[in-house]
Fold:
Amino acid sequence: MSSPFRQPRAVWAVAFACVISFMGIGLVDPILPALSTQLHASPSQVTLLFTSYLVVTAVAMLVTGWVSTRIGAKNTLIAGLVLIVAFAALAGASDTIGGIVGFRAGWGLGNALFIATSLAVIVGSASGGFAGAIVLYETALGIGIACGPLLGALLGNISWRGPFFGVSVLMAIALVATVAFVPATPRPAHRASISEPIKALRHRGLLVMGVTALLYNWGFFTMLGYVPFPMGLSIYELGAVFFGWGLLVAIFSVLVAPRLQTRFGTAPTLYVNLLLFAIVLAVIATFTSSTATLVVCVIASGALIGINNTLTTQAVMLVAPVDRPVASAAYGFIRFIGGGLAPFVAGLLAEHLNVHVPFYVGAVAVLLAIGVLRTGHTLLAAADRQLVVDEAAHAGQADLDGVEVAEIAMDGTGEAGVLERAESYHPVR
Structure:
């Protein structure tokens, strides 16, 4: 198979936009304390930047399939990029925390439209087959997650407005490149229904994985959204800490998680991984006054988060007895709801009780996730066996994929199948 990094311009245009989009996950972390001080806002008000962004992203995940099957993948991609450019710039121009929170919500809508279709477009244009497209996509995701906090620190040290305007400019460049270089994609023959993702949650496997992800994300986003406040670090120092965190997320997600899954199985790996993450949160809760301890715990948690992201997303696509794009939307909806509410609740708990409580609550939520996941152990074991079968089948068709996938997508025949394969893998993180 040819190198996944020898690609046409269309692929690089979308991959660049993916990097910038994924930067948005940790972009605001270094500037949270500065926003609180300069805009005279409480920590709980500032954490609404996560809540509005993620809750809107969650709800929008339910309609992205409905939109993309009616206007086509490229147009959905462009619509998402336009919204991100506009709302990121508006957030940077705002003078109130309420305005920024509102514009971050619009940013979340654009991001949902973009990330829901970006991998499908990459697969449709990539050379080297489906596997090569996945490697490129995961690379873009890893770079974005790692570099988001670093960019946020560099621009945020100039002004808290800098990260927002920076994203707007970079996404505008990506928008122009997408319009110019990505070929038009025809509309799929099958039009998705808005109600499909909600109905899919009636299936036990998907619901178990979704609730597990909600509880895990409660702990994860409690840490991501609130830990900058007790750290007491400068913008540059916060950027460096979360850069180290993001780097481990990328490395363990792409390189380590698949090996652990092969060696120990999905369920045992996740049990241990979640237990370790709960312990990390408990240590943060106990030693919130120790900056060194918080730094070590945050960076180390990147390894655990990377493993969890990859294995849970892979598992949910295998245990869900519905079309994989529908499963992705339903799963993303549940998990992002937990991630969106957690930072705001953490701020309220810290303000009304003390700074230790939100992290203890996060640790308990992650422990509960283990219990919920245990109810689906049989399904996960079956998913592992199915994965072995799928990988064997894919290995036998690798050369064929390298020739045919791009051709099928580009001429419009069988586009729904290409979209399904792409969205089935898409890691809604």
